[in-house]
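S.,

Sequence below, as promised.
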Amino acid sequence: MPRRKLTLALSTLALLLLLSAVAQADPLVINSYKQGWYTNTNTNNGVAPLNIPAAANGYFVGAGNGGEVSRNYFVFDLTSVTGVTSAQLRLYLPGYNSSDSDPSETYVLYDVQNQFISGLGSVENALVYGDLGSGTVYAGITVLTPNSYADSFLTIDLNADALAAIQSSSGGLFAIGGAITTLRNTPKQFCCEGLFLNSMGHPAQLLVNGQAIPEPATMLLLATGMGGLLAAKSRRAKP
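The prediction came back faster than expected:
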């Protein structure tokens, strides 16, 4: 094969491979940046002296000892994501974690006000608990029977409102709050009526259909491939 044709073929192949790598970035799996819970007694599991990575916190949601109620949260860093068209939240479910007799619980996801996102887990704020269980609804799911989900993952489809928030948050942080809306009013003497009790060490994941912004090295390779194609075309055009 003539040298010019070989150069053109290799440049074309390199360009196609690079474009394919960018196009096949779907779906993207983004681990939580921070996660945890806040209670109605103004406590949370993200402050010292726990001294564990923020993304390793457990995210129990529901009623605990003496009627203390927890709502959870998840924060994701979207600085490397763009063009999101759909999204799901995937959570680790070690078991139903409920000693209550309810056959099911309804778990609802909400938006989180921007003013609270940066401080989640690192500050105690009595207003955060209320915010995690109110506002714009992103999703709702009914979890059935105590034993059906043991040691598995719960994948929740996020709605159009969540997708719009993700799209507007590209290049920044995106947060989700969660609450069980079917808790009984009677205080619990012993733990628990809830979900995700033993979730510590399992980061929540945001699964998005979209594109990853190419790294600088990838962009350099892409530019080199395009440059090779243009150079080959220019040489072919010369008499």
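The CA atoms of residues 82 and 211 lie 5 Å apart.

Coffee later?
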